[in-house]
Amino acid sequence: MIRLRIKNFGPIGPGLSENDGWIDFKRVTVFIGNQGAGKSTVAKLFSSFSSIEKALVRGDYEKKWFERKGRMKSQFLSYHRLENYLESSTRRSVEIEYEGNACTIRYVDGQLNITELTHEEYALPQVMYVPAERNFISYVRNPRELKLSSESLKEFLTAFDQAKDSLRGALKLPINNSEIEYDRLNDILNIRGPGHKLRLTDASSGFQSFVPLYLVSKHLASTVQEPSQSSQQPMSTDELDRFKKGVESIFANDALTEEQKRVAISVLSRRFNKTAFINIVEEPEQNLFPSSQWDILKSLLAFNSQGEHNRLVLTTHSPYIVNYLSLAIQGKHVQQHIISHGRENLLPRLNAIVPQEALLRANDVAIYQCNERDGSISRLPCFEGIPSDQNVLNEWLHTGNELFDQLLELEETI
Fold first, then answer.
1. How far is it, in rounded angstroms, from Cα 229 to Cα 224?
2. pLDDT higher for 326 or 119?
3. Residue 375 and residue 93: Cα distance in Å, rounded?
4. Which of 24, 48, 199, 341 is most buried when burial is the number of CB atoms within 10 A of its CB?
5. Is 137 helix (H, G, I), strand (E, B) or coil?
6. Where are the alpha helices (DSSP H) in 271-346?
7. Nearest CA to 366 among 131, 20, 88, 23?
C-alpha cells in the first residue's frame, strides 16, 4: 500500500481526520474540493515523493544526497512551486510522511529522512504530472520558443513532443467522432472531424485541453505496459551510462558465478526498465462537455488498466467525474453478477454501457474531499462500494436549486 500523511503544509492543516492521517493511494485516487482546498498540493506532493523513491531505487543519487538540508525545498518542492508553502507554515510544524514499496520518507521541520526497504516487488514507474495549464501548449504555435517557468509544464511538453513523434497515421479520438494526425514537416497537429479539418491551435478549448492529456497518457501507458516490448522508452544518456557501468562492475567481479552474474544483470535491468505508469492529472474535465468528460475518463481508466502496477490520481471540480466513477464501479459489480449467474451473453450489453477496460473494483478506488476552511481532508464514504453523493460537488448542485426556489418565493411575495 502506498500512502501519504500531511500536516500543516500550505493549505493542508490537520490533514486526513481518519486512518491515523494516512491517505491511501489506490489504483484510482481522486481529490475533490474548492479552490485553495489543497487538492493539487496533495497530488504534487505524491508526485514529488514518488519521484524521490524512483530516483533512489534507480541509483540516481545516494540516500545522503536527498537528505542534505535544503535539498527537498530546492530540488523537489520547487519543481511544483511548493517551496513557498514552507514559509507560510512557519508557525506550525510541517510533517510529511510517505510510505512506498521501496522506502519510507519523512520530512519534518526542513529535514528529510529516508529508510530503504527491500523492494523485490517495486515496479519502476514513469511518473507524469499533467498540469491544468496543458491547454497552453496547444494554443501557442511554438511553445518551445517560450520561456516556461514551470518545470512540470516543461516536462509535460517534452512528453507531448514524444507522443506526437510516436504517431503513425491518423489516430482516432474518443470524442466527437474525430481523429488527429501529425504533420512532422511543419510540426503541426491537425484534427479531422466529419467534413472538416483544422489545426489544434485553432480548435476549441476543449480539444486543446483534451488532446495533450490523451496523447501523453496513451503514449506513456503503452511504453511501460510490458517490460519486454520494443515500445519501452529508451534510456536517457545518463541512465545508459550508469547502466553500462553497472554491467561492467558485475562482469568484473570474479567472485560471482556465471549464474549469479545473469541474476545480477536482471536485477540491474529492473532498476532502469519502467514497468508502471503513475498518471497524475489535474482537472481532466477542463473545458469539456459532460459526455466528453465521460469519454476522457473511460480512456484514462483504460490506460490505467494496461499495467498491474499503474496508478491514476485525479483532482477535479466536476460532479460528473465522481458520478462516472460510480458507473465504472457499479459496472464491475454487474459484470461479476453476470458471470456468477452464467449469463455471459449479457456482457456485450454491459460493454456498450461501460467498456470492460474501464471497469473498477470498489476496493481499487478512493475519493478524498479537501476542506478549504480548516485544511482538513476526509475520505468520501461509500455505500456498497459506490461513492456517496453526499459530497461538496453535489451539495453545490443542490444549493443552486435551493437558490432558485428562494427566487420563486421572493417573486410570489411581489
1. 8
2. 326
3. 14
4. 48
5. helix
6. 290-304, 319-340
7. 23
How far apart, in whole angstroms, are the C-alpha atoms of residue 200 and residue 139? 7
> Of 155, 163, 109, whose CA–CA distance to 133 is shortest?
155
Identify whether 299 is part of a domain.
yes
Domain count, the chain: 1
CA distances from 380 to 211, 320, 387 (A): 30, 15, 7
In a domain, 257, yes or no: no
3 state DSSP class of 87: helix
In the block, residue with C-alpha cell 534507480? 58
Q: Euclidean distance between the first and final Cα of the chain, in Å?
A: 61
Residue 305 corresponds to which cell in the numbers above?
A: 488498466
Nearest to 40 by CA among 295, 317, 289: 317
What ranges make up the beta strands (E) of 84-187? 95-99, 103-108, 111-116, 125-130, 171-172, 179-183
Specify which residues 12 forms β-bridges with. Answer: 9
Its domain, for residue 326, covers 2-233+274-413
List Cβ<8 Å contacts ≥24 apart for 225-230. Answer: 225/277, 225/306, 225/307, 227/270, 227/273, 227/275
Query: Around Cβ 202, how many Cβ atoms within 10 Å?
Result: 12
* DSSP conformational letter for 272: T
Is the predicted pLDDT of residue 240 greater than 50, yes or no? Answer: yes
Cα angle 286, 289, 294 (rounded to 5 degrees) comes to 85
Q: Where are the beta strands (DSSP E) in 87-206?
A: 95-99, 103-108, 111-116, 125-130, 171-172, 179-183, 188-193, 196-199
How many residues are there in the chain?
414
100: which residues sit within 8 A by CB, 6+ positions away? 2, 49, 50, 53, 117, 122
Which residue type does 47 have? S
- Is-contact 73 83, C-beta < 8 A? yes
Q: Does residue 241 belong to any structural domain of this protein?
A: no
Q: Please give the Cα distance from 298 to 296 (Å, whole number).
A: 5
Residue 329 CA to residue 362 CA, distance in Å, equals 6
Give the whole-angstrom CA distance, residue 213 versus residue 401: 33
Per the domain annotation, does 229 fall within a domain?
yes
CATH number for position 347: 3.40.50
SS3 262: helix
Q: Who contacts 9 (Cβ-Cβ below 8 Å, separation ≥6)? A: 41, 45, 85, 86, 89, 94, 95, 96
How far is the C-alpha of 18 from the C-alpha of 37, rounded, in Å? 18
pLDDT tens track for 119-158: 667 888 999 999 998 888 887 777 666 666 678 888 898 8
The model's pLDDT over 342-357, given as tens digits with 9 standing for 90+, comes to 999 999 999 999 999 9
